[in-house]
Amino acid sequence: MNGELSVVDAKSESHRFKSWKHKGQNAETMRRARNEMSVELRKQKRGDQVNKRRNLVTEDSLDESDSESKTVQLNNFSLSEIVENARSGDDQVQLNAVQQARKLLSSDRNPPIDDLIRSGILPILVACLRRSEYASLQFEAAWALTNIASGTSQQTQAVVDAEAVPLFLQLLQSEHQNVCEQAVWALGNIIGDGPALRDYVIGLGVVQPLLLFINPDIPISFLRNVTWVVVNLCRNKDPPPPIETIQALLPALCELIHHPDTNILVDTVWALSYLTDGGNELIQMVIDSGVVPYLVPLLTHTEVKVQTAAVRAVGNIVTGTDEQTQEVLNCGVLKHFPALLSHHKEKINKEAVWFLSNITAGNQQQVQAVIDAQLIPQIIMHLHKSDFQTQKEAAWAISNLTISGNPDQVVYVIRQGVIPPFCNLLTAKDNQVVQVVLDGITNILKMAGDTNETVVTMIEECGGLDKIESLQNHDNEEIYKLAYEIIEHYFSGDPDGELAPDEQPMGFNFDPSASLPSDGQFKF
């Protein structure tokens, strides 16, 4: 796995910043923070789905049945002998040599990929792909090249540089199914290396012949491989796949989402999650495909792997516009969330709260939908006692609500007991969380209306005031400014935030235009 997302360059960060969904006070700060969370989630996605796969040796794939005999035979052939024999004009000698190379590459630990590349065998293996009259040799060569392409980017590039890709595409037409399937696997590894090779293979015409394999007659193992390659075609968003490719893939994904095989279903939903992570235009394409009503019920699938992929996919959709978010809400998505918020997997909890944080960032009708679904108490519960990453998402959900919601909705959240657990996060070591909570508290105090004094008392009684006061000495400028402003406006002895001069609270009138008396003293 490569860590392409461990560092986000300024340009892509700026793009995400502009497109993130939020509005209201402090929107820009909040957008940036949500984007960082999105980057973290995308990193995890790469851990969830493997983008390259090696075809390992199995008992059925070898002539020998005993593992010791395999080892002895491999040791009896030096690499130079294998390369020499692979050049042989004797078909059987050549086949045996290529098979030995494939077995070396299929070993479970530390296959000698670089040694084989340095040996000069790559052009020989690629030439073997042309032997349409000798399917066994094509298959063994394709298998060996598949495993070389499963390695590092440099190793994958070596296969591409040997001009293997056009020949793999030709093998998709082979009358031998095992040769076709091995070619699909090899192409999947090359496409999975990253956007550059993905687009190179797309440019050579991989999509249509690949989609022809999605039919009722294909064996399940073959269809799993095809679906995995479709996932790799959808993967990577910098840049995303060509629009024409997405348009071609979406009907296939709409078909595969009904497949009973769990592996195929999981890969299909991950493919949709990658597409919906590519911005509002791609989100709209997924919505227009008609797949969303079939995606939403998968949130409560019996397999956790399916649920994980589904919550990511629908979560990505609701990072779009309010209208796109509404498409998901119209499918009754919120009825699935009591179960997701009480799921035994913490990761599901976190992503469920992440999803809701983007609903509470929507319009007031969408905020009300979360309230009506009685999900606020569960969000507050996670704010109170979940894993920190889930607490962080819950803080976002509440803070977003204080921006997007109306005063009645904010008062409802206050009455559900949000203040104490919200204030408890003010001692977090994560500056982003502290700032989000301070923003939320500021908004709550602004919108509390007649309950303002009650909120002030709640904050004092739960120890929140002490925490805010201590934050006035924080190293982060934004944090200490927010803390100072809260104290100044709401806790400085004036419950209304400021005294109006003409109200004469103590029986005298203050005239700011009056000049100082000549003796320098005011007389009362």
Give an overview of the whole structure.
With 524 residues, this protein is an all-alpha fold. It is 64% helix and 0% strand. The protein is elongated and about 95 Å long. The N and C termini lie far apart (78 Å).
Offer a quick outline of the entry.
This protein is mainly alpha-helical. It has 31 helices and no strands.
Per DSSP, the total helix count is 31
Would you report the number of β strands? 0
Q: What is the makeup of the main sheet?
A: none
Which spans of ≥5 residues are poorly predicted at pLDDT below 50? 1-48, 58-76, 495-524
* Fraction of helical residues: 55-70%
How many angstroms separate the termini? Answer: 78 Å
- Mean pLDDT across the residues is 84
| Amount of beta strand | under 5%
Structural class: mainly alpha
Tell me the radius of gyration: 31 Å
What order do the helices and strands come in, and which of them pair?
Elements: H1 10-19, H2 27-48, H3 67-75, H4 79-86, H5 91-105, H6 113-118, H7 122-128, H8 135-149, H9 153-161, H10 165-171, H11 177-191, H12 195-203, H13 207-211, H14 220-234, H15 243-256, H16 262-276, H17 280-288, H18 292-295, H19 304-317, H20 322-329, H21 337-341, H22 346-359, H23 364-372, H24 376-385, H25 388-404, H26 407-415, H27 419-424, H28 431-447, H29 452-461, H30 464-471, H31 477-490
